[in-house]
Amino acid sequence: xxxxxxxxxxxADQTQAAPFKLWGGRYSKTTDHVLAKVNNSLxxxxxxxxxxxxxxxxxxxxLAEAGLLTQSExxxxxxxxxxxxxxxxxxxxxxxPRDEDVHTVNERRLFxxxxxxxxxxLHTGRSRNEQVVVDMKxxxxxxxxxxxxxxxxxxxxxxxxxxxxxxxxxxxYTHMQRAQPVRFSHWLLSYAFxxxxxxxxxxxxxxxxxxxxxxxxxxxxxxFNINRHQLAVDLGFDGVSHNSMNVVSDRDFVVEFNFLAxxxxxxxxxxxxxxxxxxxxxxxxVELSEEYTTGSSLMPQKRNPDxxxxxxxxxxxxxxxxxxxxxxxxxxxxTYNKDLxxxxxxxxxxxxxxxxxxxxxxGIIRTMRVDEDRCLSxxxxxxLATDMAYYLVRRGIPFREAHHISGEVVxxxxxxxxPINKLSLEDLQEISPxxxxxxxxxxxxxxxxxxxxxxxxxxxxxxxxxxxxxxxxVDARFSR
Length: 480
Hints:
Layout: H1 11-16, H2 33-39, H3 42-45, H4 49-65, H5 71-90, H6 102-114, H7 116-119, H8 128-164, E1 169-174, E2 177-183, H9 184-209, E3 211-212, H10 228-235, E4 239-240, H11 244-248, H12 252-278, E5 286-287, H13 306-330, H14 344-367, E6 369-370, H15 372-377, H16 385-393, H17 399-416, H18 425-431, H19 445-450, H20 460-478
Parallel strand pairs: 3-4
Antiparallel strand pairs: 1-2, 5-6
């Protein structure tokens, strides 16, 4: 026995249902071929096919609940749309030159599969203006979840490496100058917290974005008393939009998505820059796995950090897409304008690039090796000049005075060309009588990092707490 709804169209009906332009009723002339090409967005928006079908099925349910479709007609429409979805997923969908976009394809196929009498009712009260927005939001909801999972994977990779190398002490830098000793893990975890914040921003954005646009019509609303609140529930939205004119031209969610992706890209680019430097022979703090480097076509000895350079380079185009959508919106009058057809290529582009870069960065971090001896040998005792000032503060000297005294010691060390830790107690006491033999205790890098026990510091306990916080964060979200 066939499972097809009884109202399914016959082959003759399908032929009779040959598609017409969704907007062509008042036209008598053929569209200019160049305009037709520019107007066609199918190459870009076809990846929304499943979301478009989800929205149409939910809308058909609303029409049935409002008495505009019978239950039998609703089931026939669902059958037709699911058949169309199956064709897309299997790659058997036939695209025609006159198909303008994914919405046209799905509606045309619905006409062909179930016939015009029932298929023609689906668009009752609905406009492509709102249909585009609901499709994009449904897609974006999944895109946010995907990027968040990749962010969690990156944070976990950083966390694992930080724990593995927690004993390693290295120079910390400001202005690209050696500043103070820090744990390697403390430096690396600083980026994990950037990515954690990126995750949180996506979560907050997802809540703001998750408002149903469907039921707004072309700009004036829907006259058929459909239940928009139930429609929101059916499609997984948290609420409904309150102004139909606002909704059909709203692309702020694309702007924000592109901005958040840009911020992630910037954070990855900064991490890439640090790792590129630390992997050079001049630093040699880390060694990248061969899986994530490439060779030179001329110089056989080279291992180039192309993976990191590409991540750094991709940040430019990602930011460019953020600028592009802002400039598209800048001069638009209210409600829908065709300029908005340019909204999806950038949105898809930044998502695709972020997917690749986040996966790549997690792999780079997870497989890199840290040279503990090289990190330690890069330290210099002059980096403990601040510790000298703290030593004086603990002896009752105001910090500004202590800072000045330490500066004089550094200047004297440079003048006599003797390392700061080798200056005699007599030399130090000539600068300040507050020095005594206990000053020798500060010339220890491990002691230096261990004094920073406050939350957020570089002591072992503090770094372990950072790792714990991040692990708790990741575990709570990976388990969802």
